[in-house]
Amino acid sequence: MILSAEVECLIYDAQSLKQKRSVIKRVMTRIQNEFNVAVSELEFQDLWQRTTIGIVTVASSKVIAEQTIQQVLAFIDSFPELERAETVLEWL
């Protein structure tokens, strides 16, 4: 089973693209190191305080894929510099 999530986030403290990218890079690196998922910034690369992160996992069952994505979403919520605004899950 393949499950993808598009997570739109707001970064309130970013005052430049450089600050935004440092936050996003740190978050994405920690997600990749902590979980066995693929992560990429999908949209809003040129906006300072907004981003969309794509996360994809492949698992042998729907339950495992769903648990993995939910753990990643909880991990994203643990970062104080990010606020998760909207999340869209899609089975492929």
TrEMBL record:
Q: Name one Pfam family in it.
A: DUF503
Q: What is this protein called?
A: DUF503 family protein
The species this protein belongs to is: Halobacillus salinarum
